[in-house]
Design brief:
394 residues; alpha+beta; 8-stranded antiparallel sheet; 5-stranded antiparallel sheet; 8 helices; 15 strands; 27% helix; 19% strand; binds magnesium ion
């Protein structure tokens, strides 16, 4: 036993050369995982998001560029409703609607997505605010229209022919006017950044109607509007289940509206997150991922060496899983570390101050989250006692 304790002391002293608070030594920090969340709060085991490059004035590096000013990008990405080459034309680097030639349709199908487009109301439409003032539209999945129209309207008393509010620019057509009118005058380029989530269906019923968020010239104008129907007409059609990916469309409403810089980023549905979400997590998926993380962490632990690093490691493992093998290892590591701590001289206790306080914090996190009980490991009482003594001496 004495030999073991000496070995532990040597290891712990070696560990002291690590920076205090080093990640991995005191892994427990925020609230632990639960039945709907596979990751703890502030969990360093959680995968980091992929880096996306965002060069100024250009699409993000993970965007699918649908129009970059070239005929090639049109040929590759756009067709008409029947899959034939679009009759829309590329002119001066712009993608221009050929009136009454039909919609322009993406060749690829997309579902939930972020969509960027720049458009302009033709100058000849400057005085038209009604249905014929540079009318077009972005139609996610070919089903729901975000209106494009000349809608700049700074004078509420002006005698102009206005379109109905739920049909002006940036309205979800026939459903919801924009929160504010962020339109620019005809002849000035405008941007839409649209975040679209399609309706979610379960057993033939709408689980969630889906949402549309729109930034018009950088201004939030549709704030996660929940879809109330389909179509681009005056009569609302109820939501009907459709394929999860469909071509997106640009509307031909008879006006030669030009477009530029069109790109799309496919985004995951929040309902696909089955491992970390109050809304959509499946408990069996959460459990499986927690077990996977616990196994990875456990593989880094030397269960024969009851030092601070391994004790903190096993406490972190318990926050993910309480498999019998982990509980056995925790019992043995905590008992060994407890015996070693109780054998230390006051000077050595002081030298281990950081580890004593840090390990005690790990216990507190697990107890607060009811992963373990306050009296499950005698080591905790030893840590509390030593920590109190150390704080008194400060
Ligand atoms: Mg329209």
């Amino acid at each position: 036993m004495k030999k073991n304790l000496l070995a532990c002391a040597a290891l712990s002293c070696a560990a002291l050369s690590c920076a205090a608070g080093e990640r991995g030594i005191f892994g427990l920090y925020g609230d632990t995982p639960d039945a709907k969340h596979a990751w703890a709060i502030h969990d360093f085991n959680r995968p980091y998001p992929k880096q996306v490059e965002t060069p100024e004035g250009k699409p993000p590096s993970d965007a699918i560029v649908l129009f970059d000013g070239t005929q090639k990008s049109v040929d590759e990405n756009w067709c008409d409703a029947k899959g034939q080459p679009t009759k829309w034309r590329v002119k001066d680097g712009l993608f221009v609607c050929t009136p009454r030639s039909g919609i322009a349709c993406t060749k690829r199908a997309f579902g939930d997505a972020q969509f960027h487009v720049e458009w302009l109301s033709p100058l000849e439409d400057a005085k038209k605010h009604g249905q014929l003032g540079g009318n077009s539209g972005v139609i996610p999945m070919g089903m729901y229209e975000i209106q494009i129209l000349n809608s700049y309207d700074p004078d509420p008393d002006a005698k102009v022919e206005r379109n109905y509010p739920d049909g002006i620019a940036a309205s979800v057509y026939a459903q919801n006017p924009p929160l504010v009118n962020a339109s620019r005058p005809a002849g000035v380029w405008q941007t839409y950044d649209i975040i679209f989530h399609q309706p979610i269906w379960k057993d033939g019923k709408v689980l969630h109607p889906g949402t549309v968020t729109v930034f018009h010239n950088g201004v939030l104008v549709q704030d996660a509007w929940e879809l109330e129907g389909m179509g681009t007409h005056r009569v609302k059609r109820p939501l009907v289940q459709h394929a999860t990916k469909l071509p997106w469309r640009l509307q031909d409403h008879g006006d030669p509206v030009p477009f530029r810089n069109i790109w799309i980023r496919e985004i995951p549905s929040r309902w696909d997150n089955t491992t970390h979400s109050e809304m959509s997590a499946k408990e069996e998926d959460v459990r499986a991922l927690r077990e996977q993380t616990a196994a990875k962490l456990f593989a880094k632990i030397d269960v024969k060496v009851p030092d601070a690093k391994n004790v903190n490691g096993i406490l972190e493992v318990l926050s993910y899983s309480k498999k019998p093998a982990y509980l056995d290892a925790a019992k043995s590591l905590c008992a060994g570390y407890d015996a070693w701590l109780r054998s230390l001289s006051p000077k050595d206790v002081a030298a281990n101050r950081t580890y004593i306080a840090g390990t005690l914090k790990g216990f507190e996190v697990l107890i607060r989250n009811k992963v373990i009980g306050p009296g499950d490991y005698p080591l905790r009482a030893t840590l509390e006692k030593l920590n109190k003594q150390l704080n008194k001496k400060k």
